[in-house]
Amino acid sequence: MTTSFKNRNLLAVIGDEDSITGLLLAGIGHINEHQKNFLVVDSKTQVSTIEAAFQEFTERKDIAILLINQHIAEKIRPTVDKYSQAFPSLLEIPSKDHPYDPSKDSILKRVQKLFGE
Amino acid sequence: MSGTGARENIFATRMALTNTKLRLKGAQTGHSLLAKKRDALTTRFRAILRKVDEAKRKMGRVMQLASFSMAEVTYATGDISYLVQEQAKQATFRVKTKQENVSGVVLPTFEVDRVPGSDFNLTGLGRGGQQVLKAKEVYAKAIETLVELASLQTAFTILDEVIRATNRRVNAIEHVVMPRLENTIKYIISELDEMDREEFFRLKKVQGKKKRDNAAAEAQRLADAAERGEEPQEDEPEAEATEDLLSSKDNDVIF
């Protein structure tokens, strides 16, 4: 469980165009021969594509943190809620059009539950 | 018999009793140690929980700011998303993982590891270069917050898991292992007592038999003597044998 985080040093993103652009500008983009570490999701993207990308990013061995826009996480909510691995750690981030809603976050839900509310 | 509750299937001997008592002591020590570990972890966990909550809210604000600066870029430069996506080659913004040890649990923490240089030197060259630079910085700040949050969250996930495992162990010892050992001890003690009573009874029986046999032999002897018309006179030596040892001085006793 805790042994395999030495080589993880990348961030991955699943998000809408604006979020991706900003994050890439900051320099998290990493592309090698056949895989990139981000997925641009727009209104035409299939849910299955998002699921596949989610699976790929969570199974890759070089990714430490996976960022996903909250409104996209909503689309694959069952998968996200089921995800409980420590690595890569999953972060739901707000996007431009969708402000952050703590009540939907899978981690915060657990926090709330633990506080007994 | 104390056959109530589960117990271990061992033969009731004094050695088994000692062993079981030792194991019970071991279980009690382990229980208190695990309980301490659980308390330490829970304290840490509560602190992290609070921080996670705070950081999540902070992230909301930071990301809003970042989106705003992105909007500025779009306004000044036009749509650069395609350009940026195509030009990204090597990550310059990476994270390093370090370990932290909390009562035997390894918690990783992420640290920002920025490599100087950028793939986007030409972006916004024509116009809006300043906005692009600003957006870059704002997003870098935002990601720093995100990384911080990610380490908290990872710690949260791992601690959650470990606390659950520890709780399971504490409960298992408290409700399964210790009662079983206690039952075993009770069982062994009752068995040993039972054996004691049996042994006592056996000895009593043996003595009774001996007495009966002796009485029979004596009666026989008396009968034989009576037949020969003599008085039995062999009580004397027996009386000598039961004489008080303390009253006489033995030559072999030195002091």
TrEMBL record, chain A:
It is a peripheral membrane protein. Belongs to the V-ATPase F subunit family. V-ATPase is a heteromultimeric enzyme composed of a peripheral catalytic V1 complex (components A to H) attached to an integral membrane V0 proton pore complex (components: a, c, c', c'', d, e, f and VOA1). V-ATPase is a heteromultimeric enzyme made up of two complexes: the ATP-hydrolytic V1 complex and the proton translocation V0 complex. This is V-type proton ATPase subunit F. Subunit of the V1 complex of vacuolar(H+)-ATPase (V-ATPase), a multisubunit enzyme composed of a peripheral complex (V1) that hydrolyzes ATP and a membrane integral complex (V0) that translocates protons. V-ATPase is responsible for acidifying and maintaining the pH of intracellular compartments. Keywords: Hydrogen ion transport, Ion transport, Transport. NCBIfam families: V_ATP_synt_F (TIGR01101). Pfam families: ATP-synt_F. InterPro entries: ATPase_V1-cplx_f_g_su, ATPase_V1-cplx_fsu_euk, ATPase_V1_fsu_sf. It is found in: Vacuole membrane. It comes from Hohenbuehelia grisea.
Automatic annotation (TrEMBL), chain B:
Signal peptide: none annotated. InterPro entries: V_ATPase_D. Residues 208-255 are annotated as: Disordered. The keyword Phosphoprotein does not apply. The keyword Glycosyltransferase does not apply. Gene3D superfamilies: 1.10.287.3240. This is Vacuolar ATP synthase subunit D. Belongs to the V-ATPase D subunit family. Residues 246-255 have a biased composition (Basic and acidic residues). Keywords: Ion transport, Transport. Residues 232-243 have a biased composition (Acidic residues). Pfam families: ATP-synt_D. It comes from Hohenbuehelia grisea. It comes from the Eukaryota.
